[in-house]
Amino acid sequence: MPSDPFGQASDDSASTSFDLLHEKVRRWIWRQAWAELRDIQERSIPVLLEGQRDLIIAAGTASGKTEAAFLPIVSRLATDERKPGAGFEAIYISPLRALINDQFGRMETLCEEVEMPVWKWHGDVASSVKERARKRPQGILLTTPESLEAILVRRGNEAKRLFAALSYMVIDEVHAFMDAERGRQLQSLLNRIEIAAGHPVVRVGLSATLADMRISAAFLRPLNPDGVEILESKMGSQPLKLQVRGYIQPRLKQRDANSDKGEATESTADIEIATHLFDTLRGHRSLIFAGSRRNVELYTARLRSLCETSGLPEEFFAHHGSLSREHREEAERRLKEDDRPGSIIATTTLELGIDVGHIDAVSQIGPGHTVSGMRQRLGRSGRRAGQSSVMRVYTTEMAIDERIHPIDAMRPRTVQSIAMLNLMLRRWNEPPQIGCLHLSTLIQQILALIAQHGGLTVKQGWNLLIESRVYPDIDQALYIDVLRRMKHPEVQLIEQAPDGTLLPGEEGERVINDRGFYAVFMTPDEFKVITDRGRNLGTLPVDSPVMPEQLIIFAGRRWRVIELDNQRREILVTRAYGGVPPKFGGEGLPPADEVVAEMRRVYESIAIPRFLDKIALECLTEARVTFDNLGLRHAGLYRYEDELLLFPWVGNRAQLALVLALASHGVTANSEGIAVTIPAKDGGKLVATLKTLAERPAPDAEALARLVPDMKRAKYDAYLGDELLARCYASEHIDAARVPIIAADLLSRLPTGVKTTSET
Q1: Residue 549, by phi and psi: left (phi above 0), alpha (psi -120 to 50) or beta?
Q2: Is the dihedral of CA 172, 175, 178, 183 positive or negative?
Q3: How many angstroms separate the CA atoms of 98 and 172, rounded?
Q4: C-alpha dihedral (731, 737, 743, 746), degrees to nearest 10
Q5: What does the pLDDT look like over 613-669, one tens digit per residue?
Q6: Is 509 a domain residue?
Q7: 331: CB partners within 8 A, 6+ apart
Q8: Residue 551, domain extent
Q9: Which segments of 570-667 does DSSP mark as H helices, in order?
Q10: How far apart are CA 156 and CA 693, in angstroms?
Q11: pTM score over 0.90
């Protein structure tokens, strides 16, 4: 138990770490009526009070990671002598504005206790608030990488004054940054801020789903990963209640040409899932992860319709990135009201640690994108003492008939869900991918440094970005190639002064002055969706096919499009019945290598997971029967009608490498989830090509990348040119080194008849 905050001696069971905290911080803890500190808090307090070592705090969702960082940080800062306006003393960096808004309230009450200011600084914060923080910087700053970038680029000459007193930088949800474009930007920002401060600053990473602690330490402190201390929570997990619920979708009849094209096409399975969600969750508090924004809209509209039909108050709310902040915050506020039931249907927007209060259960439609994401979602429920974490996964499979494709008969969604749950229960997470070049972000960071300092030498850029190991896989030759490309007459991002200083070129000036420059990720051109009563509902991508008089579903409600204003980039809508959800794009990712490997183990095993309902169990049984009927226990190839199904049992990067390697030898191949399809007429050519690929060294990844029709994936890829773009794409998407191994394995698993046919 925590000792008395007023300084009396504590008993033998008292927390020794609690006694190390500042008296006012102890008093705050006492008023929260905490029975004890969490184990991760006990262990982090002495490390961060010392203020000498970088630290990773790895603990489950709702384990008190934020307090594990800020109880000692606030204690240390409250003890140190502080000169008002001398600079921010700690920075909290989050991937989401909503997470900052959520943490701000919690942080404010703690810091009020020690009379320490706390500032929010992101795109939704009033400029007057930012101006007050800038003029008198002190206390704790809560911000995003994009806002930090804006501070350094726009106020580079003030950076030293703003960060001179900085002692700590805390990165929340660090796994969300690792091996991503924003992660490279963040690493560069941490380095640039330390340089501005003029001294090393303690870095603290918080996460619930880190897979490889060594790689995580190298991300946090690239030049000294061995100096990063790692604390993993020893607390036991909450009891789990898991269920995979299966649903069978009958084969849809062809739509009648005269049918109403304005109505949403909901499948029988979708309706059954929505009905079960309604019956199970009505009157409770829950999160429903629907996968895509389109699914969020469909299920929210369906669930709201069920509420209306039953004469019940509205309990179901949509939440995704295209909805306005007002809509998202309204849904979040509803779930924070402990005395009212409510459910939010979301994409991944609520996967991270935004506090929406006590949650009874989590539901997920489809297998989801990642195991780590599934773990984050599960952690949102079961936070109260003695309560279980509850998750239901809903899977849909096609009815088996004479027309069903063998891949559908293998029940891949059900098997993938089982595989991901198995891996989650083993505490496995997707490891970060290493070796990615992220040249688009390198271009942005070079321009940002030029803007921050009013110019940059080639050597300064090298020191700040490459020697700092922000970009560990870029050598001197590649760095120079990127600079030359940026200076190329057809690009004009930079130019070079007579003394060698790099300055913005004509295009570089335009890019730097663009309001979207501070974000390294792509932001699609969008239309605002405005109601006829003037309410902003959110945004739709420009390429979404919306026309006047069209009926759509948006924000979980049904609307008719009145007008499309191209100049103002606005869609005017009014309430209506019927409608289809618009296409948002960017939906779905193939599973990782280990997920595919686990799927294969599920097919080959006879074990029956206890978390399957009756239909999911039937689907698993059918999947295993199909697996054996196709001969896949020993073979890797099956002929179905006029195509060959190849089963390499590898993840997305290795499978793409195989598909492109086959294409480079004239074999037409397409990825179809766990299988690769090839025209049956190319069977002989396929076997010959596999032999060639198995016998030769691994193909050149860049040569394979050039076979991709459009390699541009990142924001500034268009400036790279074909050669650099192919190199970058290959590093991020193609695992060419494994092609000979995969080809040899497939050859060893070819059915005898295929081998004989090809050889004759």
Answers
A1: left
A2: negative
A3: 13
A4: -80
A5: 999 999 999 999 999 999 999 999 999 989 999 999 999 999 999 999 999 999 988
A6: yes
A7: 317, 318, 319, 342, 344
A8: 526-575
A9: 593-604, 614-629, 652-664
A10: 53
A11: no
Q: Tokens 């200076």 sit at which residue?
A: 487
Per-residue model confidence as pLDDT tens digits over 710-760: 899 899 999 999 999 999 999 999 999 999 999 999 999 998 766 544 443
Task: Pinpoint the alpha helices (H) of 426-490.
Answer: 439-453, 458-461, 476-487
Cβ(535)–Cβ(516) below 8 Å:
no
More confidently predicted of 14 and 243: 243
Same domain, 464 and 367: no
> What residues does 558 pair with on adjacent strands?
553
Q: At 252, give phi and psi (nearest 5°).
A: -70, 140
H/E run at residue 507:
helix 506-513
User: Can you name the residues that pair with 90 across neighbouring β-strands?
Assistant: 140, 168
**Looking at the structure, do residues 530 and 450 belong to the same domain, yes or no?**
no
Residue pLDDT, tens place only, 261-314: 444 456 789 999 999 999 999 999 999 999 888 899 999 999 999 999 999 999
- Buried-exposed string 177-190: b where 16+ CB fall within 10 A, e elsewhere: bbbbbbbbbbbbbb
Mean pLDDT within 26-42:
90
Torsion of CA 67, 71, 72, 76, to 10 degrees: 140
Q: Is residue 12 part of a domain?
A: no
**Sign of torsion, CA 155 160 165 170?**
positive
With a CB cutoff of 8 Å and minimum separation 6, the contacts of 580 are 262, 263, 264, 265, 551, 552, 553
Residue 540 sits in a domain of what CATH number? 2.30.30
Residue 146 has what DSSP assignment?
A: H
* Contact (Cβ atoms closer than 8 angstroms) between residue 733 and residue 658: no
**Can you tell me the distance from the alpha carbon of 20 to that of 46, in angstroms, rounded to the nearest whole number?**
7
Q: Looking at the DSSP assignment, which residues form a beta bridge with residue 495?
A: 503
Instruction: Indicate if 382 and 483 belong to the same structural domain.
Output: no
Residues 287 and 223 in one domain: no
Q: Which residues of 251-288 are buried (b: 16+ CB within 10 A; e: fewer)?
A: eeeeeeeeeeebebeeeebbebbbeebbeebbeebbbb
Q: Do 106 and 215 lie in a common domain?
A: yes
What's the CATH number where 282 sits?
3.40.50.300
